[in-house]
Batch of 4 targets.
Target 1
Amino acid sequence: MRTLLLKSLFARPVTLAAPSAADVELEQAGRALEERARRLFGRAITIREVDAGSCNGCELEIHALNNAVYDVERFGIRFAASPRHCDVLMVTGPVTHNMKVALERTYAATPAPKWVVAVGDCGCGCGVFEGSYAVVGAVDKVIPVDLQIKGCPPRPIDLLKGLIALMEKATVAP
Amino acid sequence: MAQNRIADLLAGRRPVAHHRPWPRYEVDAATWDAVGQGLAAGATLLGLWGDADAVHAAVTAPALDAPCIVSLAVRAGVFPSLGRHHPPAIRLERTICDLYGFAATDAPDTRRWLDHGAWRLRAPLGDKSPAAPRDPTDYDFRPVHGEGLHQIPVGPVHAGIIEPGHFRFTANGEIVARLEERLGYVHKGIDGLLTGCELDKAARIAARVSGDATVAASFAFARAVEAALGIAVPRRAESLRGVMAELERIANHLGDIGAICNDAAFALLHAHTGILREKVLAASDRAFGHRLMMDLIVPGGVARDIDAEGARAIIATLDDIAPRFAEIVAYYDETPSLQDRTCTTGIVAPELVTRWGAGGHVGRASGRDFDARRDLAYPPYTGLTFKVPVLTTGDVDARVRVRIAEVETSMTLLRTWLAALPNGPVRVDVPQSREVREGIAVTEAFRGDLLVWLRVADGRIARCHVRDASWFQWPLLEAAIEGNIVADFPLCNKSFNCSYSGHDL
């Protein structure tokens, strides 16, 4: 127990260790986001994640944003428990008929200015679930979407890049 | 004796043709009902699903040589309820009634389950009659009466980055008197989408039943197709399937062990297991080109071979994480404040896991010694000897420890296969069969046994059903939390980690 604590104290952060091309890309992506977020929101943006019907693959990768390797909190991005505390809704799909009302209410509970990011091939289109009686379809069929991050599921690095794209869009036309 | 009942009922009957590898019997209503009584007497329900004009139940019992499927033709839209004998069948029956419009005679619970009144049609896999939308919140939760009781409704949108579902707690102060779940929010109509689907597309849909178990579901789907069509998979593909399945198991268990600690406010271990999980995903990505290894197991083999470098990347990752994982486990062992939260919390009684046939860590932490990799052995596990951890305390701690032991077993299996990967092709062609063929397969996903049953004809799926392990675990979560404090619910829930999507289909 002590060894793990001691090692953690003296070890270099995993986030910065041995920067390969991919890590450098991550670092730059995160810093750019922080600058724009500061201009917009002062210091940080807060995200509320809503699963509106996903297979949970996207959730696994969104989760990874919080681990020590990607560590989005160092850029001022954090996930909130309530839509009332957030600036950005990150929604995975396809939106099912059974989740439509819950998604609409979550959107209504989010204070303006707010942005919506649709995540994953299903959230952006409808993915393999196209044509089912049980799904409404892409997120933008239910609430206005500001940005789409595609992938099945998108990698954490793609999610981070996507958030930067959102900030660029948001600074032009809030 | 009681368990022999089903074997006796089916003795001497002729199974239907072209159903592999286990027999399927067409039975009459009286036999169907007797099967229900046999289940109540100790047999295990593996699955229960509907068809255009029939219902099918997969059952297993020690007296049977192998699992078998019994099918009952549904006449005038009704079939005798199995749930009235065997409660684990109740939610599955409610699902059949929602999707096909059948009615289960004498069913103990006739409330709708997946149908929340939002589809604008009734019986989407049956007569598809139009239906006016109903208020989605109009649902009769079971009444709870008593002094000092209050209710806490939670969800469908939860506080974390997790899937949606509704939990209705009735609490007396801090103590949970009853939890009732309401699921179905992420119902995507997968059974309907699979019907009439080409095999390639069906495999992609099956891979998205539950993203965290994508490898296990693809594996079961592929094996069911191969069983139906009589396809032998190349040996190299068999080994690679095992490699992917165990990588998926390790990644999920690592994530969950950390998340359980995190829900006990012990974030340090979560941070450490998170790093290890990331390393496993990175190795999977290097070896197979996808972090979650989605769409890689396909009927006929695997879609992508690995090179020597990929195999080395996995071994190097194991060498790297094994000692770190041992340290994390030691830390868990030596932290009484953490174990104060996990020990004696969320106990599931052995009788319940046996009755429900609960698989995975939920069953094995409460004494149910079952692992599909060993007990319904399939390549590449056939003939291998490996440790299946079984504990009996049935609490959160036991589920954590079962997962820890499984990570260690998986690492050993990975090393065994990667040290001696057979050479040769990794995929064979899937032959077209004009005739109707049926297949069934069970694989052991990280959360337990996952069943796929399907009927193919003309290169298309005529009917396919995927039954995730969660079906027989979700109801036990209601039992696990009873008598515990509300604040321990996240801990219990994470120690199960049932799939919402895998259940809601």
Note: Chain A touches chain B through 51 residues (CB under 8 Å).
Target 2
Amino acid sequence: MPAKDAIISIQNVDKHFGAFQAIHSVSMDIRHGEFFSLLGPSGCGKTTLLRMLAGFEPASSGEIYIDGAPSADIPPHQRPVNMVFQNYAIFPHLNVRDNIGYGLRKQKLPKAKRNAMIDEMLELVALPGYGDRRAHELSGGQRQRIALARALIVRPKVLLLDEPLGALDKQLREQMQMELRNLQREVGITFVFVTHDQEEALTLSDRIAVMSGGHVLQVDTPSGLYETPNSREVASFIGTMNFFDATVKGRANGHAELDVQALGRVELPVNGADVGPGDRVCVAIRPEKLSLHDEAPACGAPSVAGTLAATAYLGERSHFHIRADGCERPIAVAAQNSAVQTGGEKAEGKSVWLKAPEEALILLGND
Amino acid sequence: MSDVSYIQRPNRPLQIYACVFLFVLYVPVLFIPLFSFNDSIYVRFPLQGFTFEWYGQLWARDSLWDALYASVRLGICVAVISTILGVISARAITRYRLPGSSAVVTFIMLPLVIPGIIFGVALLVLMSRMGVPLSLYTVGIGHLIVCLPFAVAVLLPRFEGFDKSMEEASADLGENGWWTFWRVTFPIVWPGVVASLLLTFTISFDEVIMAFFLTGTEPTLPMYIWSQLRFPREFPSVLALSSIILFVSFALVFLALWIGRFGSVSATKELE
């Protein structure tokens, strides 16, 4: 049985299309009222999973509970979920009002009540006065709002959104992200949002499921995914990450003693990773957690000597690539330009020192 | 230098060709209305004088009106049935992953290339073996075979042209398959349905070969015309009648094409 606070509970779900397995035993809970994202590259199964929630694709095995009830035998038109389609699927033969009011037929409302509900929705998506327009008279962003209003008017328990911002240009996209987040808070409905854009997922979501090749790799909050990824794949998919090969030398009270390439001996908490002495593992650190120094730092944090291979000035911050002995790939470093920068100081070819604070290092099993 | 591109530049030989083509195509047909106003029972030049007599005579012929009534009834029934069957097939072909669906489409379209006389003879043999008396119903069955490929050919692009997610969106918003069809699918393919109705009606109305083999005691209008050709005195009236049919057929086909095109233009706009 699903957990109490779960509006959707996916349990050991597989999905096959002929010989191809699109979803590999996925299990997760989506809680009441949260903004939940399915994040992954195209073809990772996130849209398939969303379509299974909507009822358009049956699960090959496993069970999906929606609001506590098993959903396998519930057809799409009886599910308490609604979907915003990737292409919005605005009905071309109806005007905006009739599109928004489409799902109200069964409620047999008096005309005035129906109109009031549609007006309220037009107000909510900031399109009052657009009621008589046809689909082809609307811009992409307007269609998107109509699709939202059309789905929200029937008061679903969960709103499913299939890359709804994918077709919009960058500026409109950022504006719609904010509106979507505010809308979700306002209506208090659980949103399940599919996207391949990690920045979008980080900005919008309460929690994110990272998917790849039909597997769910990690389900966590945005900061959880960024700060404590549980695998090399998640770490490299979200943001930029530096990886160092390492060998486990020993384990003691929840810590592993490691011999890390370029960094030397380090002791890190294992965080449940299944490692034993002699294992080849991997240590990761975010570019902005490294600090750049002109001279060898005093003892303390692990440090690396190297030469500047490339620098990029990005306004509020700078990116550096540093070539270090014992590392085949350059190490990425990001630094805030909080002090005034003058040219020449960070010239390429200059020798520098990197300091890696031990608490910022992450131990990852080598998968 | 010309300010239009190479591809848009007028091409004199092609224009002449187009004019000659249309001339050769339609001039023989124009003789029919021309002689239908000629004050002589013989179809030959020089024209004798202008008259409406042959048109007037049409009013007095009860058997003609019976035949016309039979053809209209038949045409409407055949148009409605073949369009309904066409809608069902087009939807099945475009929406479901059927094994061998391309073979199914080929078989539906086959009557377009198989000579009508073969179907006519085959149906006649079948009907007489089964002991079914020839009547308007047997003609109707023959016409259905002729009309169904046209109905499917007109409807299939309409069904292919619209997005499956429209139907999914309707289901998602709480409508079952039946309501989804009436509230979403049918309105979107409606221009194709109208075009199919008009086209199949016209085909049934004009059809001779199937009717020739399968007509019972009630002749269709083309069969009536055929029977009148034996009497030279009746010929001018036949010309008058043919002129009217010609005009109405042209009007219906143009209407069908126009509605079809109008519908697809607005559909493309909406999909942008």
Note: Residues 265-272 of chain B have pLDDT under 50 and may be disordered.
Target 3
Amino acid sequence: MTVRFEGIEGTGNREQGTVGSAPLFPVPSSLFPIAAIGHVVAAVLLLAFPFVATDFFTFQIGAYALIMGTIALSLVLLAGYGGMVTLAQMSVAGLAGYMIAIFGTSAGGTALGWPWFLAIPAAVIVGTLFNVITGLLAIRTEGIFTIVITLAIATAFYYFAQQNYDIFNGHSGFSAVAPAHVLWVDWRAPKPFYFLSLAVAALSYAGVLYLVRTPFGLAMQAIRDNSRRMEAIGFNVPAHRVAAYAVAGLIASVAGVLLVWFDGGISPGSISVDRAIKILIIAVVGGMRHPAGPFLGAILFVLLQNFAIDFVNPERFNTYIGLAFLLVVLVSPDGLLGLLSKLGKGSP
Amino acid sequence: MKLFILTSLNGLTLAALYFLVASGFTLVFGLMRNVNLAHGSLYLLGGYIGYEAAQVSGNWFAGVAAGTLAMAVAGVLLQVLVFRWMEGQELRQTLVTIGISIVAADLMLAVWSGNTYQFNPPAWLIGTTQLPIVLAHKSDGTAVLLPYPTYRLFLLAAGVVIGVGLWLFINKTRIGMMIRAGVDDRGMLDASGINVHVVFAIVFAIGAGLAGFAGVVGGTALSIAPGEDVRYLLASLVVVIVGGLGSVTGAALGALIIGLAEQFGLAYFPTYGIVLTFVIMVAALAFRPQGLMGRARA
């Protein structure tokens, strides 16, 4: 078998041959019209979805998939475009969620009761800073070590939140976390919450798509492909990498705020290793070569999570998810997007 | 003073356990560049199998042997059936180990449920031993010695024996020489006519077997329950980050530091114990990113 992860660091000798032919743009130019049409179709479908679907589908499926997709998108930015596979994105989202519960209003632990326009930016800033620090640590080493370090950080944060009652209220965490009623709208009602999630997801998606075409984004991808060459040319490789962590932290934090509202609370279980790995599964299954991948993966994941019960023993959900993940890793390393683009190239 | 001595001893015995788990992890990485995130699953599965074997045979040592051998076989199977076919693709191998750990954790939950298992070592390992450390003197002049659980002393001894054995194996035997050569230059080892796949399989068997062994002896000292796989995976990760990925000596040093730090944290500032471990990891990354014993990669 010769398939391998194109465009992800640490997959063997990419010094020779592949660098020159690696696409600088994630979407091959011949596919670009298809991508443009795809964007319009997706936008129409996503905007019309809550008016056709039931409240359950709008909230439990639609909004949840958009939020998980956004968190996975932050991983794709780092892993797919930066070659840094991190497992700490869920911790970033979780920390932002914890901060919303602590700065804003919640039940369980000590909440400061700040108004939403202070609590949200504060939570997002804390989450982003956390990812910057994670990045500063992770970039001390290269390649596969990133996974080791970020997994250690994610696990340590989980155990810390579980043991610490002063800040994180230990095992029970916080409950009754809900968005404020702003402009006379209950933002946790299915339709408003869906559109809120959609807005965040769309902005993040467009932001990533734009960012990877800026000089910064192109430098990022060049660093992914050959960091030593970029360093020799005179690029500040560590600064680029930390900046990527900052952007990814921003995206994950905003999604984390939505996630804590969706869950209605947060506890160490929300930031468990299990969930951190699910973010990686979503990104890998969807495909890490384009920002659409994580959303595709998230939709599939959420649908499976909700409806696999009807077909298989729900208690063994993790076994099926794990096997599906193994299958994708073994058969189509580029995920569903890779499969789709192969099909797309095959047809006239 | 008593607290200090007890904490030090607890730290040392925990370090022995961490070393047993982390040495297998670091050995596999050192040679095959395979970050085996299913290492915690091997630990837990070894513990469960050891428990079952000990229940059936009524002999604790049979349990230890069963757990160790079963995981060694599992390691060889993983290497021969899975990882051999994706050599050099580090990320893909790691993703596969993540998939395996998810499935393994769920299947173990299905078989052994969420209960906590505890089993007893042989009678002569139960109880306490008087250590030659004088705590106080009675009025008639006899010394009051510090009692310490015998089993934990056994754990410490097992860690030291296996550590020394591993060092001798790697530094003094022919296979050990091949392993060291493979760590330095895999291609050259292959070119000198040695079947690297056999060496890889042996190393994976040792690494996985050590995890299984640790699962049984550690499970006897503490307990076996779902979630322990993640706990010991984290311990292995932190130990090798501090000690240096790929170095067995580094694993010993890292285990010592982390084991002691964890126990002292637990004894002196309970809810922030994990922070101390974490601070050590951060400090190691900041000042010596390759780990204390790791070699800087060109």
Note: Strands of chain A lie at 174-175, 265-266.
Target 4
Amino acid sequence: MDERIPILKLGKALLVTIQVDMHDRLALALEEDLTQKIVATGARGVLIDISALEIVDSFIGRMLDNIAGVSRILDAETVLVGMQPAVAITLVELGLNLSGIKTALNVERGMKMIAQTVRASDDSDDGE
Amino acid sequence: MATVPNQTSNLGAIIAQHRDEILAGWLRDMIGTTRRSDLIKESELRTQCSQFLALLAQATAQSTDVQSAPFERLREMLSEISRTRTIQGFTARECATFIFSIKRPLFTAIRESLGKDSNAMADEMWRTSELVDGLGLFTTEAYLKTREETIKRQQEELAELSTPVVRLWKGVLALPLIGTLDSERTQIVMENLLKSLVDTGAEIAIIDITGVPTVDTQVAQHLLKTIAAARLMGADCIISGIRPQIAQTMVHLGVELNVVSKATLADAFAIALERIGKAVTTVRPKG
């Protein structure tokens, strides 16, 4: 059985905490699982906590960007939280600015961001 | 090396014999060439010179190799002299001339002592010349070493001084940049900023570039990298303090920063407060 990264459902958001070293297959599996889960649960936000991630390469960087892209198409907003300074510098030096992804310093703020967007879209739904 | 270690020379005896003449001739030569009366007192110089001569006489009695053990005290003294002279503001040439100007009085003394035996005189002169050259080079080396140490220390101090991260409010950091941004400094600035973001949990960082003399495409690139890295960690950046000429240059160069920029740090701070939901109000004083 393949190693998988757990995806937790928290209200209208999905919470992914990456606590192991990301290797390429794991990242691909995560993208796959997350896509399925968004559709299955109708989640409006995805929070990816990478505070334990120490090493990134261009592939992982691109995977994060892809996940955000897929989520956006499925009407869920991705927030990346807890990035380490060294990881941020590495990604910038690799030319990966991840401009499509929202970021926050920690899980708490990330959840607040998602809650805001969910509420905003709910309000506009009610207005119709 | 041409000199044979532990080869004894008569120089020690000659110096002891003609000490006063050599000293007088040496000081005269130095006054004629490069003695800087504005930087060093004559009495101090005289003390240094006589001390040097005494040590030289002592050392040459045992060896003529500058790197050998008998010369250790002399080397120490020369290091100390060039160190203090560097700090006093002597040039490299002035420092080396201190040693080289001893040649003429030494040669005169040798000629007086060994004038009858031309072979012995030639040998002694060659040895002395080599010895003085060795000491001169040693002095120059010591001088350069002191200089290098000074430069290195100043560089480190500058790097530390010029990249502070200041906390303006809870959740708002300011980064006043002073001086030109090169790759190395950008790296330090970026690391400092990101570390402070983690430590303080700030959401907004204001990068103030009032002290940056020029902004070309490369500096802009470095700024953008810093901003991108801060954004990845979940903090927004505001640029402030772009001077009028710099704004013009940036537009002419086609540099686009694509971030919120404000003319002054105060304006940027106002925006930052607004974003974190705080406001500055006037309070009527009591009484």
Note: Residues 27 and 63 of chain A are 7 Å apart (CA to CA).
